Amino acid sequence: MDSLEVLQQINILSSAILSNFNSITLKKYIEDYYIPFQKNAKKEKNFKDLLGKLNIILSYELVDKNITDITENDILNFFNLLKNDRDIKQATQNRYRTCLNHIFNTAMKDRIVNYNPVKYIKRYKEKNRDRALSKTEIKALLEACKQSRNEELYYIVLTALYTGMRYSNIVNMKKSNIKNNVYQLDGCETKSGKSQLIYLHQDLLNELNQYIQAHSRDNIFITKRIKRSFKTALLKAGIENFRFHDLRRTFATTLLYNDVNIKTIQNMLGHSSIMMTERYLANDSKKELDAINKLCFI
Hints:
mainly alpha
């Protein structure tokens, strides 16, 4: 068999493989190709989050269609059903759009489809959350946390306010990772995949040390869920429209109002871009008012 015949056979085989791919449903592609790939490519926690979305997507009739036959109208109908069935907010709908978009982009790289029907579906405009605590609210919350039946709540909330760390990072803190006034997050604990140094305020260290010394274990906290006790503390403190993750925003906003450079805040939060950091900062007129007061023309 000469080289020309070999090339002809390869083309025939490639056509057969593509023909076989073109006959598969979106469901089969997700289950047999996309999920195994993502399982190896993502961290365990991120993969679990993705799998949750995929399982919901797989419960709709959309996935029973041939992957090459899915149109923009099919995607729009899916989003309408998803919104009606689950009463999800626009931000959540955007997360599903991102997920589907990545599935089809991956299918294009695999040469299974040559068109992404999600690409031209517009993202919903999201309203950035801008809730941050005032000094008075912080004091009231910490006092309420001290009175909680969950003895760890106060220390967990205090750590969030002083470090801006995410909840999962806080509840998994270890004594062995504290060196002097620095706590180290390993790459497997951060969204960026890079290790991060968290500088601990002396006031926080003093409070934590009192609690640490009373317990002989490496894990600082054993609590994994504080939703109920945190909600009770918020009610007792008279604080409304507030979530635990907003403590991270409170941390960032407090630093900004104390003239800390936004680049420094970005590094402290572990964000990959300043744009992400800006989304965390409370949206009010204080920055603009402070800027105006610096003008002097007469």
